[in-house]
Write a structure and sequence with these properties.
globular, alpha/beta
């Protein structure tokens, strides 16, 4: 398995309990949306979750509903990724988080088939929250893992500190302007995010293109206001974690 698509997800969540299991569209759950979008890349898919009993339902559900691999590893995200890479002998992988069910799979299909001379390929800072993406090589994962190991695996919920501190060779992917600087929020972290995503799928269907979602919300600004006020809370929370690593 030289290339893979890794979905990082756990069941417990503080602000929106069990968000990965929430029903979004009819009987489709958050994890269903993520897996179905990941399938568009035509890569082998792996759900990377923990060994904790709280994730038993998620693992059993995915095994029953989808023909993908399920890897259960450490609670630390970076360590879990390293374990997953080692087990399946992965050279490079696309990553998506369980709280980004409307991610743009076309970013991945466009970049994963190119010759990659970097350890991580990622998004610009001004991208819409919720369509983040990472493509990381084994060398990049190994460097992050070693850095995390030396620091007790603390604060591995976001990887930006590890990318910078572990000195990964990074490439920022250029995006169309429509994906930048909009008062739109597409991640799933608060109840208001859940409400918006339900409304989006109700209007656009189960697997809308991300660009069509953004265009729809640009035209329907009142709908965007349902959750965008939560962006400041989200950014403050991220900032606190990053500050603990003294990222500048």
């Amino acid at each position: 398995m030289k290339k893979a698509f890794i979905i990082t997800a756990r069941t417990p969540s503080r602000r929106l309990p069990s968000k990965i299991k929430k029903k979004i569209f009819k009987n489709k759950r958050t994890i269903d949306l993520i897996i179905e979008r990941a399938k568009k890349t035509n890569l082998p898919i792996i759900l990377a979750t923990t060994k904790k009993k709280e994730d038993n339902f998620l693992c059993n559900y995915v095994k029953k509903k989808h023909d993908i691999k399920v890897f259960r590893g450490d609670f630390s995200k970076v360590k879990r990724w390293y374990q997953c890479f080692k087990k399946y002998k992965i050279k490079i992988a696309c990553f998506i988080e369980g709280d980004d069910p409307l991610f743009n799979y076309r970013f991945y299909t466009k970049e994963i088939n190119k010759k990659i001379n970097y350890e991580i390929m990622t998004y610009p800072k001004n991208i819409i929250t919720g369509i983040f993406f990472h493509i990381i090589t084994f060398k990049g994962i190994y460097k992050m893992y070693n850095f995390a190991k030396k620091n007790g695996y603390r604060d591995t919920e976001i990887i930006d500190p590890f990318v910078k501190k572990a000195k990964l060779r990074k490439k920022i992917i250029r995006l169309e302007k429509i994906f930048k600087n909009k008062k739109i929020r597409l991640t799933l972290d608060y109840p208001e995010d859940y409400t918006l995503i339900q409304k989006i799928t109700k209007n656009l269907g189960y697997l809308p293109e991300t660009i069509d979602i953004v265009k729809f919300l640009i035209k329907n600004k009142k709908m965007s206001k349902i959750n965008f006020f939560r962006e400041s809370d989200y950014l403050n929370n991220q900032s606190k974690i990053i500050q603990r690593w003294k990222i500048r």
